[in-house]
Design goal:
The chain is mostly helical. Among the domains are: about 260 residues, no CATH class; about 45 residues, no CATH class. It is built from 21 helices and no strands. The radius of gyration is 30 Å and the shape is elongated.
């Protein structure tokens, strides 16, 4: 009976993984190149397209010396942007699957396969991930955010497994961890800082919880941390990063100071929300655990949960030092928080077991919302799939490109002949727009409203260079002006 249950769990797990991978591939195929993707398709700082690996390495070097230290994942973004997008679609779908698998294993540890948990993790990522399109589907955003977080989560997995139960490792693990740490260290500033903070926290827990002397902690723990620190220093000490820091410092001091305060406030608000939600959930789980007397490994569980919470806070607050804090920069904090919350939830088998009417109802609502959001998301992405690509735009003339990009929206109401109206107003000085609109509505009772009529006429005059205006400075109460439709009334002598 147990083998049958495990077999069903494994089959469900595999089907979910394949479905997620195929679904992501379809969404990636429907997502066009956007914004920075076109910049990364060229040699950095030039208008020349990248055509070979020599130019790709040259561009990465220019980026490292002139702009920033995230050279490894920028290299990937430039490589994918300069090639056929189908290649990125395949790799990105696979990396997304690795991402959700990494989150799942951070939650489940080395326990037996748990298909419902894996399904819930996928649903949570889809429904709750900040700016999903910018961090997962967009080529440049995916390389800079999801890929970086995925590598960091994979790097931290051995630490998570070791805190659960110490294990003996092969000699090769210390080299693998050093290389992974080096790659992740120069990935993205706040992700790397959070990863290093969590790495140090795990090592400290090895000493506290498992009573392992610092000198007896496995070598791979220190080699991974060393690689991460070296990679982080390579990133923040890069010539490009120093130039950007000098530029920010030498810019308007007052504005830079106000922006820093704004970032700190924004970080504090986000962290306060995180803190409230997570502390409330933690208190609830603590209460449930104590009531059910399932607190044998309770302290270790809470300490592990605190590591993920600490990593999320480090990811958010490290962005206070940046002059720009886009919402997509919280994607890494979301990943760490997701792992921490589900780690506590799994302890109670909350949201994992489908026994009971309430849990069946909750699961039904969750998956209905999930299915609806998948449909709406796919529909939204599809609306961009027919947009003009870079290659198509390059072949069009300026007039053809303008006509394709600025196609007039279909109007359900009849549009007046603006040229005739303009000539009529110019010919008869006693006419105004109110009169012309009333005349238009006589023939078109369901036509434009007066405000729409005036707005479209002003757009016509502006587009045809027929708009003439004179600005006069007026003092309040000095003059009174009147607008007359017909001839002025006779003056009284």
């Amino acid at each position: 009976m147990e083998k049958s249950t495990l077999s069903k769990q494994s089959v469900c797990f595999i089907i979910t993984a394949v479905t997620v991978c195929v679904g992501m591939f379809i969404l990636n195929c429907l997502t066009p190149l956007i914004a920075d993707d076109f910049t990364h398709a060229h040699i950095w700082g030039t208008n020349e397209k990248i055509t070979n690996f020599a130019e790709l390495f040259s561009s990465t070097k220019a980026y490292y010396t002139d702009w920033g230290g995230r050279f490894n994942f920028t290299f990937l973004a430039q490589m994918f942007s300069s090639d056929d997008k189908i290649i990125f679609n395949v790799f990105n779908s696979f990396i997304y699957l690795v991402f959700v698998l990494a989150v799942y294993y951070h939650i489940n540890g080395r326990a037996k396969t748990n298909a419902p948990l894996f399904i819930n993790v996928n649903a949570a990522v889809w429904l709750l991930a900040p700016v999903f399109g910018q961090t997962v589907l967009w080529l440049t955003g995916a390389c800079m955010y999801m890929w970086v977080v995925t590598f960091a989560l994979v790097f931290l997995l051995p630490y998570r497994f070791f805190i659960e139960k110490p294990f003996k490792s092969g000699f090769y693990l210390k080299y693998v961890m050093f290389i992974l740490g080096l790659i992740c260290g120069c990935g993205f500033e706040n992700t790397s800082a959070a990863m290093l903070a969590m790495c140090v926290s795990f090592i400290w827990l090895f000493h506290i919880k498992h009573k392992i002397a610092y000198g007896n902690i496995p070598v791979w723990c220190y080699s991974g941390l060393s690689g991460g620190i070296i990679g982080f220093l390579i990133m923040i000490l890069s010539p490009g990063t120093q130039k950007r820091l000098i530029g920010v410092t030498m810019a308007a001091d007052r504005n830079a100071f106000l922006q820093a305060l704004k970032n700190i406030l924004y970080s504090s608000v986000i962290s306060a929300v995180f803190l409230f939600v997570l502390l409330m959930s933690a208190l609830y789980f603590i209460y449930r655990l104590l009531r059910k007397k399932e607190n044998r490994n309770f302290n270790t569980l809470l300490d592990t949960y605190a590591v993920y919470l600490f990593g999320a806070f480090a990811a958010v607050y490290s962005m206070s030092l940046s002059p720009y804090f886009p919402p997509r920069a919280t994607f890494n904090a979301f990943a760490f928080l997701l792992a921490g919350v589900f780690l506590l939830a799994k302890k109670l088998q909350w949201g994992v077991s489908f026994a009971g009417i309430k849990k069946r109802l909750a699961a039904g609502i969750l998956y209905t919302v999930f299915a609806l959001s998948v449909f709406l998301g796919a529909k939204d992405v599809y609306s961009y799939s027919n947009d003009i690509t870079y290659e198509t735009a390059f072949r069009l003339t300026d007039a053809e490109l303008h006509a394709a990009l600025y196609q007039p929206k279909p109007q359900s109401k009849p549009i007046p002949d603006w040229n005739a109206i303009h000539e009529e107003l110019a010919r008869h000085k006693n006419l105004n727009l109110q009169f012309m609109w009333e005349e238009y509505r006589v023939g078109q009772p369901e036509g434009l409203s007066y405000s729409q009529f005036c707005k479209l006429y002003r757009q016509y005059r502006k587009a045809t260079d027929r708009q003439v205006s004179l600005y006069n400075e007026r003092k309040a109460g000095e003059l009174m002006e009147s607008d007359w439709l017909f001839s002025l009334p006779p003056r009284k002598s």
